[in-house]
Amino acid sequence: MIMPLSAQPVADILRFNTCGSVDDGKSTLIGRLLYDTKSLMEDQLEALERSADLSGGGRINLANLTDGLRAEREQGITIDVAYRYFATPRRKFIIADTPGHVQYTRNMVTGASLANLAIVLVDARTGVIEQSRRHTAIAALLRIPHLVVAVNKMDLVGWSEERFLEIRAQFEAFLPRLDMKDVQFIPLSALNGDNVVERSPHTAWYAGPTLLGHLEQVHIGSDWNLQDFRLPVQWVNRPNQPGDARHHDFRGFSGQIAGGIVRRGQAVVALPGGLRTRVKEIHTFDGPVEEAFCPQSVTLRLEHDIDISRGSMLVGLENLPGGGTDLHARICWMHPRPLRRGHKLLFKHTTNTVPAVVTEIEHRLDIASLETRIAPDALGLNDLGEIRLRTARPVFFDGYATNRLTGSFLLIEPGTNATVGAGMLHPPTQTLCSEPTDYTI
User: Fold this and answer.
1) What domain range includes position 281?
2) Does the pTM exceed 0.85?
3) Any idea what the CATH number is for the domain that residue 346 is in?
4) Which of 308, 229, 216 lies closest to 264 in space, CA to CA?
5) Could you report the per-residue pLDDT of 272-297, keeping only the tens digit for each?
C-alpha cells in the first residue's frame, strides 16, 4: 500500500535523474513510476485521460506527466529539466527528468548535479549508442555514486535474455574507464510497467530487483561526507523583536551542513577569520539537539562573539579545507557566448560569491571518447573543459571528489545575473595550518 506523502514517517530522501538518448522512454518511465505507485492527484489523472493519445489505442501518454512544455509534447522530446516527487513507506524520492539530446547537455548536468543515483535508459532495439556513453560518462564525472542501466522496450525484442546480456556486455566494456562501483542492470518495459514497480512474468530468467525495489533498497547513507564538518553560513540569526527580552542576546549562524557531524561543545574554526571557538547550542526546526549532521539545516550558537557573516564557513579542527585565490576546475559552459581567457565572472561557492577572472583554458573534454583537446581558444555552449580561475578573495573549499557540496560552484554573468557555467573544483594545492592552537581566541 502506498501512503500519502503527508502521512509518511520520517525517511531518507533519494534524489535520482533519468538520462539517455532521445525516445528511449525516460519521461514514460517516470510517468509509470508515479502512476503505479499511486502518487498522482485526481486532477493529474483527469488531465492524462483528456490528453490520451487515441492513435495509440486509447492508451494514456504517461510522458505528459513530465513533458510539460508545449514544444516537448509536440516534438516528443524532453527539453527542460522536470522535477517530480513521490514516496513509498520506505523512502521519499525526488526525480529529475533530464533531456537526452546533445543540444541540452547543460540541462542534464543541472538535473544530475545533486543526484544520488542516475538511471541511464537504453532502447533494447538499438543497444548502447553514443548518447548512452555520453550520459554515463557525465554521471561518472559528476561522481554520482549509484548507476542503474535500465534496458527499456524489452517487449519489442521478445524479452530476449540474449539481447539483455549483449547490452550488459557492451556497457561493461567501458565502465571500468569511468570508475563506477555500484551498477545495476534491469530489463523492463516502461510503457507496460514490466519490472518497474511490479515484477514481470516475462523475465523468469532475471533474478534481480524491480526498478522501484532497487530504488527503495540502495544504500545512500555513505554518499554524504560525514567525516569533515562544514557549515557555510547562510545568514546571521537575530530573532529578537523590539521590546522582547527573551532573545535579546541570541546570535546564531544558520545554514545547511555541507559535510560531517557537529556536536554541542565541539571546537570549530570560523573562516576566513581563522578564529577558534566552541559550539554552545545547536537548533533545528524541531528544537535544540545535541548533534546534527549533513545535510541538515541548523542554527549554531557559539561560545564567543566573533566576526561571522554570510559567506563565512564554520569547519571542524580535523581535515581543514584548502584555500586560495588560484583555482583549478572542470566546468560545463552553459551560455551561447563562448568562454575565453580573461572572461570576468562572479564565482558562487556555497553561500559565498566573489568576483573572478578566467586565467587559462587548459583543454576541452570529448565526452564520447573521454579524450582531451589541448588548449582550445574557447569553450562553447555545452562544452566540458578544464580551466583556471583567480578570485578576488580567498575561497575555502574541498576537492569535488571529497565533498560534492563544498567542491562545486556556479559561474554567474555580472551584468545579467544569469548562470553561465557550473563546475567541480580539483583538490586544493594550498591547505590551512592543521594546528588548532593557531586559531585560539
Assistant:
1) 230-316
2) no
3) 2.40.30.10
4) 229
5) 989 999 999 999 999 999 999 998 99
